[in-house]
Amino acid sequence: MEKRVVRKTGRFNKTCYTRNISYDNVRVTECCPSWSVGNYIATLSGRSSCDDISSIDVAHVLTLLKQCAPFFNNASLKENCWNFKYNIPYPVCHALPLGCVKYNAVHNILYYLTDKEFFAPTGDKLVYTSVLSPAVSDRRFRKRLYEKHIKRGKVSEGDVKLVGTEFHFLKYDMFNVMLMADIIYPSIAMVLILLIMWFYTESVLLTFLLVLSVVSALIIAYFIYMVVLGLEFFPFLNITTLIFLMTHLSFTDVWRHSKQNNPGASLTRITADTLKHASLSMFVTSFTTAAAFIANFSSQITTIKCFGIYAGIAILCKFSMMVTWFPAVCVINENVCVPWSCSKESSRQKIKLLYEKYVATFVRYCFDDFLPRVVIKFRFFWIILFSLLTLGGLEVLLFEPGFQLPTSSDFQMFDSSHPLEAYELYFKDKFRFETSPRKEALRFPSIFSGGLKPSTTEIS
Q1: Is residue 29 left, alpha or beta, with left meaning phi > 0 and alpha meaning psi from -120 to 50?
Q2: C-alpha span between 138 and 3 (Å, rounded)
Q3: Is the peptide bond before 89 cis (omega within 30 degrees of 0)?
Q4: How many whole angstroms separate alpha carbon 57 and alpha carbon 351?
Q5: Is residue 307 within 8 Å of residue 234, measured between CB atoms?
Q6: Lower Cβ count inside 10 Å, N or C end of the chain?
Q7: How many other CB atoms are there within 10 angstroms of residue 44's CB atom?
Q8: CB atoms near residue 454 (< 10 Å)
Q9: Within a 10 A sphere around the Cβ of 167, how many other Cβ atoms?
Q10: Taking a C-beta distance cutoff of 8 angstroms, is the pair 62, 105 a contact?
Q11: Contact between 177 and 414 (Cβ < 8 Å)
């Protein structure tokens, strides 16, 4: 299966690790063989490839694994017992049977290629096996491999089925590709939001300047974030702040009510009355929302911390613009008529009358009459219903199944059923080399760099 899925995929021969071997005194370069149970059986049985092994060879290696498993389980069988240069065991492993240390095959099969239940102290059933292919990280090859085989999610050969893959940074490459492909959906959502804003404000100018205020708030927040606070890391998550800034339409609503309640009043009085009623509610809403975001500063996750800071600053910037810059926008809107809309005043009046007759009347009926009546008339029903829902939510959160922290140390990019997530979510912990507590498995290289700082101080 590995030969069909990986080795026959285009560009594999250009991206694999190679070795130099001789055939009839002719030296050739070829891709290294994969680490697989089949290849190790062929090596231990003296076959040229796994295609040549027989059931007798499989039975022989199975017997060998059974004999050597106790040495592996008590850590007597080490990771590197075989000297490939001289084709003999290292002195530290001389006490072990030769078959157990030859080519490090038994150790590699049990440690890397078979699941941890296979010949464990409590069982000997083999369910999962891994194949480690000698492919160098190559973006084009990874993408081609995904499109040809992994994307389908069903790769099998006889009774053997491919259930998971982990191929360098393939998951992150495909996430970037799909993210760019899905950008059309937030674009459609943004267009719909603009249409709703235009429909609600009844003014193209107000809609445009509302969007301009959002963009300006984001730019000012970016300046404070990068220059004033000196934060150089700007995660992609910060862009989603745009969603929280597109909902501030309360000022235009209060402005409209002030005009209706004070017919013939001057723009100065309407502006003062609007600020009197709208500024406090906008301040409370903006301040509490910004405080909730900035509270993420205590998070240990850098992306969440940066997002909280940027979102909180952007919301406060938007509030500042809504109580200083936007009132002037509303005054200008009252005195300025967009040329193309003024030229068709009769059509505009007809549309406005239809809007007032049907849409506005229906909305006022729902929110001013129907909804209050339903809430007040059935108030005890709503109290009992939402109290039960609250108790049910507490039961689910605290007891069964309870609040559960992430169980995987790997960052999940796709849905749990996605073929690129299966290995890390379901199968990674089934192999010894992924869960080994051995010290050698936990070591990693650390590089420390030092230097001399130039100084003009003279030392005598």
Answers
A1: beta
A2: 18
A3: no
A4: 85
A5: no
A6: C
A7: 19
A8: 5
A9: 18
A10: no
A11: no
Reported for 18-24, long-range contacts at CB under 8 A and 24+ positions apart, including other chains, are: none
Residue 259 corresponds to which tokens in the numbers above?
């005009």
- Cβ(316)–Cβ(225) below 8 Å: no
Distance CA(239)–CA(241), nearest Å, equals 5
Using CA atoms, how far residue 339 sits from 204, 342, 345, 399, in Å, is 11, 5, 10, 64
Average pLDDT along the chain, 460 residues, taken 10 residues at a time: 80 82 78 89 88 90 92 88 89 89 92 88 81 80 80 78 78 79 82 81 80 89 91 83 74 80 82 84 87 87 88 91 85 67 56 68 81 90 94 87 68 78 84 69 49 61
pLDDT at 144: 82
- The whole-angstrom separation of Cα 269 and Cα 414 is 54
Contact of 55 with 48, CB cutoff 8 Å: no
CA distance 324 to 234: 28
Paired tokens of 350: 């007809």
State how far the Cα of 141 lies from the Cα of 135, in Å rounded to an integer.
9
Residue whose tokens read 């995904």:
146
Residue 421 has φ and ψ, to the nearest 5°, of -100, -15
- Please say whether the dihedral angle defined by the alpha carbons of residues 286, 287, 291 and 292, taken in this order, is positive or negative: negative
DSSP state of 267: H
Per-residue pLDDT, 314: 92
The pTM score is 0.61
Kindly state the tokens that stand for 209.
């300047």
Find all residues with CB under 8 Å of 114, minimum gap 6, and list them: 37, 126, 128, 129, 130, 431
Token pair 């490839």 is found at 49
Strand partners, 135: 16
Question: What's the confidence (pLDDT) of residue 106?
Answer: 92
- Name the 3-class secondary structure at 309: helix
Residue 67's pLDDT is 92
Give the Cα separation of 65 and 174 in Å (integer): 39
Quote the CA–CA distance of 385 and 388 in Å, as a whole number: 5
Cα distances (Å, whole numbers) of residue 45 to 1, 69, 102: 21, 19, 12
- From the number of C-beta atoms within 10 Å of its C-beta (0-12, 13-18, 19+), residue 63 rates as exposed
What whole-number distance in Å separates Cα of residue 289 and Cα of residue 83? 65
